[in-house]
User: Fold this.
Amino acid sequence: MGNGITQIAAQAGNEVILVDVDEKILNKALHAIKTNTSRVARKRFNGNQNQMKPFVEQTMMRIALSTDVKSAVQDTDLVVEAIVENTKVKQELFESLDSSAPQTAIFATNTSSLSGTEIASLTNRKDKFGGLHFFNPVPVMELVEVVKTEETSENTFKLLWDWANSLGKTCIECKDTPGFVVNRLLIPYLNEAIRMVERGDTSVEDIDLAMKLGAGHPMGPFQLADYSGLDTALAVMNDWHRRFPKNIAFNPTEMMIKMVKEGKFGVKSGEGFYKYK
Assistant:
């Protein structure tokens, strides 16, 4: 997610500092961004090298790398976080950045499902905090959910909305409710699909085929879960279950818990509901 957000922001003319804890990860990310930007350029300019080359070069020149997050935010207008789906970890990150970033800087979380209000709770800029939920892969997916927490100011919301629009994205406004719009529908949908398999009603493969051919979805719930990461999906379910224990639609399934314990996270681990090379 960080790679994709960095890429589209730099392509749109923004100066970006990409931060991670490991230099090797950063260098790998930079290589991936250059490769993906070259693909964008080839498509955008119909293979014209005279236009492709400067587009790629200028995009890459706008990207800097850092493993020092506090230093990276000292002169920034916007911080977009895209780390692990864990409320406590996100809270600790933003709390640590609060005194390092300019008072005018806006903080945004790319969480797909967690409470932005909770994440912002340890900062002193709750009015300058909101959600920017991009979808994976970021350069391809058109939607951004712009999330307004309980304390997000109208000016902050407008700035986040306008910035996402400037990247060529289509925005929708979301309240700070579980899963916002997309994942609020997708997570219970995935849970019910898993329960059907657990009951022996049908198979993983048939459910995916049914939703592709019968509902016109580009991929079925199990393919989508594998692509997004089962560990991420379970983290979301656990958080929702913690916050809303009486809502059975949010209860993690035994199959999901077992697969994550076994390290079957989906595409990124080589196996989830399907196996991958």
Observations:
- Strands lie at 16-19, 63-66, 78-81, 106-109, 129-134, 143-148, 170-175.
- The two ends are 22 Å apart (CA to CA).
- The chain has a mean pLDDT of 96.
- The first strand starts at residue 16 and ends at 19.
